[in-house]
Amino acid sequence: MIPRILIVSDNSDARAKGLAARLDRRGAVVATVPLAAIAFDTGSPSGLSIPGFDGALPDAVLVRSIAAGSFEAVTRRLGVLHAFGKLSIPVWNSAQAIERCVDKSMTTFLLKDAGLPTPPTFAVEGRAMAEAIAGRELPFTPLVLKPLFGAQGRGIRLIETLSDLPAEDEVNGVYYLQHYVPRPGPPFRDFRVFVCAGEVLAMMSRRGDDWITNVNRGAVPEQVSGHGETELAALAKAAATAIGANFAGVDIVPAADGRLFVLEVNSMPAWSGLQSVVAVNIADAIADALLKSMTDRTEAATARPYRLTAPANS
User: Fold this and answer.
1) Distance, CA of 146 to CA of 155 (rounded, Å)
2) C-alpha dihedral (68, 73, 74, 77), degrees to nearest 10
3) CA atoms lying within 13 Å on the CB side of residue 230
4) Burial profile 117-127: b = 16 or more Cβ within 10 angstroms, e = fewer
5) Residue 119 belongs to what H/E stretch?
6) How far is CA 97 from CA 28, 144, 191, 215, in A?
7) Beta bridge partners of 8
8) Residue 145 in 3-state DSSP?
9) CA 57 to CA 49: how far, in whole Å?
10) What is the pLDDT of residues 25-81, one digit of tens each?
11) pLDDT level of residue 165 (50, 70, 90 thresholds)
């Protein structure tokens, strides 16, 4: 049977186009549709209406990106992904994994709960609670304030005094505060490790003059070499497992004393910078892993255990 795969993305996304091309070369029928265009429809046999599927459902869903929108719109879009899961359609990544990654406070909670090294972190509502935490922590360490929902280093700031805390309306009333991990610099370095189907596909170091070492902020991607690769791989795989992600970009920062800390897990990671310094084709690897998981799932569903039947008593 020819697999039908739905890629959830804005059609302008280059990585979605690359994934579609590679899945097409492997014999799959691929449609790329934004979540905003998929409707709940109780008149449909499945309860969903997907452009280009003529009332049918895909065999698998690959989520490349979810466009920004109102709270109501994003909630509805994630509801569509939850619906696919309810219909037993494999979704990479699931709505639950995406929600866990988008909400940095939940990411940190799950990393800590799994026993992974992550900086002490606090997520509170209201400036009064934020000031209480900062007043207690700042005598010993600077804090990093991050948007609870954010990516690519946007909105991150260093908090060294109480006056550095922004007003509530600048952070929608939520303060996500994390201990700053001291490390040598400039240049500053951290690591991005790409995990797919429980295995590490690739990793890179990011070197930048700024302590926020995102490639889109000017950091330079570099190959990783040396004895630290094994520990980086182990931490990244454990982090992706803790979140429940089929594929993920895991951000790890090295402290000045050599310890490694997991900062974030990205459920819809970009990989253009990473691809520039590694030999493996990341889109090919994701396509192969998804198709293999579908084959394994089908084989498991059709397998029947052999049972010995005892002779009837005479």
Assistant:
1) 6
2) -110
3) 2
4) ebbebbbbeeb
5) none
6) 25, 24, 21, 24
7) 33, 63
8) strand
9) 9
10) 999 999 999 999 999 999 999 999 999 888 899 999 999 999 889 999 999 999 999
11) very high
